[in-house]
Amino acid sequence: MPRRVAPTQADINTPIHLNRRSLVTSVLFFGNLLLMPFKAYLSEDSPFQQSSAPTSLLQPKNTTFAAFEPVYLKLLQDRYAHIHATNTTEDYVYDDTYCIDVYRRVVSLEGLSPTALVLEFPTSALYTAYAVDSILAHGNGTLDQVQFASYVTFLDMTGFILAAWVRPGNTISGDTSDAGAYTIYVAFRNVDYPYVIICCKFVYRCLLSLGTAMYIYRHYYCAVRRLLVAYHQAPRAPGVSHVELLIGEPTDFVLTNAWITLGYTTDCVLSSQFIGRAMSRAYNTAIAPVPGMLGLLYLSRLVWFGYITLVGASRVLHGRHLTHLYVPVDSLVVAALATLNAASVIVLSTNSFGFRALFYVLMQSVVLPENARFTTFSPFWLGVLLAYWSRGRRVQQQPAISLRARLLLWVYGIRGVSRASKGWPAPYLATFLAAHPPARANCTLSQDDEDCYLIGYGKDGNVVWVRRLVWTKTLALHRATSLGTDASHDATSPIAHLTSDPDLGARIVLGAGGANEWIY
């Protein structure tokens, strides 16, 4: 690793002004981490939100078929409308022993196969056809009388069990006059997790937030503090009135740590469990698992196990001094997982639920609506806040700079060079890149939002130079590069200048012989 060289040349200035918007961004990021344990406290799986009532009282108890009626039973009834209605009966029972809601319906198949009847359920092709004693042993007969069973469980993801099976005969009234009668059973049960698992999840989220905050402080802001001390000790640069240090948003930097990313990915997967439990609690058995939802949930789980494998392989290879397998973690991965969970909600809501009602349900932390509490800050109000913050901004075409970079620069408050350019989110850098094409390859704002930036201002308030502080994947501030203006394109100037070499491509030369390359 290159040597650690303190800044000696006067291309920087004291005092240092911290940009207020970048500070607000950092404060909000830390605030979210500090509030994460309280969110866990208010969430449904919190050990502090568990009811002292018996388990059976927490289960849905409907008294009429109209309140219980699932969507797929409507489809089933419509599909078999030709069956004799006079021979069809139905009822609804609740089994306190197993905490199971059971719906029974007697139909006359008239030569149709009972197996085909169960397979007509919309998602039964994704089920595993095997018997589960705790469910199939319910009511009016033994397992030997089960003609066909279809079973699915989301025990470890969304917290409910759904089963369907067929028995020969009319098990409701005991009538044996119709030889072609069969009884359809549909059973549903919510899954209550052991208290110790609930406590472990709560402690896990608390430790994740605390560990992330400590990691950012030790490996990110301590380096920024050392940088500030070095700049305060440097002499004033001619023609520079002050320098702004724009502290980057540290999310991407933190997620270069594979273990932290794995922690957030795991928590993201566990959130799908909360979604399913909230839905089942509010709508009882009106859940129609569709292939899209199953695919999304299993895809998020596949990514989760993929990271476990990558991290484990990396540690084994590194421990044996063979190589270090780089785990390609990025904020986009966590964002993709969050999108998968959100997409599963949308898929469910468009098939079985009203979206507005579903939104309110997901914010509730207890069973009874009159005791419902909101568990987190609504994304809707966060969007309103961001919209208010960026009000009155015109969308304009900027040369060689992405929308993400322009928004980032505007948030960090880089000022313009003229009154006419004040309406642009990033007027200076856009103008600079247009005048200096070689600099485009070195300005990676659109990819490295976690980097810090030094902006040197002249006495007239215009930008003199921009210095980007690059963070490497080894979690250290690696190199300070400068983007100079025309006035600084002097080989003898202590300010770094741009060069373009056909062999090396566009690159940055840091003073004479690289003497101003800083390692922190």
The helix content is 25-40%
Low-confidence stretches: 1-18, 44-88, 119-144, 147-160, 276-291, 323-331, 351-449, 471-520
What class do helices, strands and sheet pairing give? Answer: alpha+beta
Number of helices: 14
Order of helices and strands: EHHHEEHHEEEHEHHHHHHHHEEEEE
The average pLDDT score comes to: 49
Strand order of the largest sheet: 1-7-8-9-10
The total of beta strands comes to: 12
How large is the radius of gyration? 31 Å
For the record, the count of structural domains works out to 3
Describe the biggest sheet?
A: 5 strands, mixed
Q: Strand-residue fraction?
A: 15-25%
Structural commentary:
Helix content is 39%, strand content 16%. The protein contains 14 helices and twelve strands. The protein is α+β, with helices and mostly antiparallel strands. The chain has three domains: 16-20 and 223-253 and 390-514, no CATH class; 55-190, no CATH class; 256-379, no CATH class. Strand 2 and strand 3 form a beta hairpin. The strands form three sheets. Strands 1-7-8-9-10 form a five-stranded mixed sheet. Strands 2-3-6-5-4 form a five-stranded antiparallel sheet.
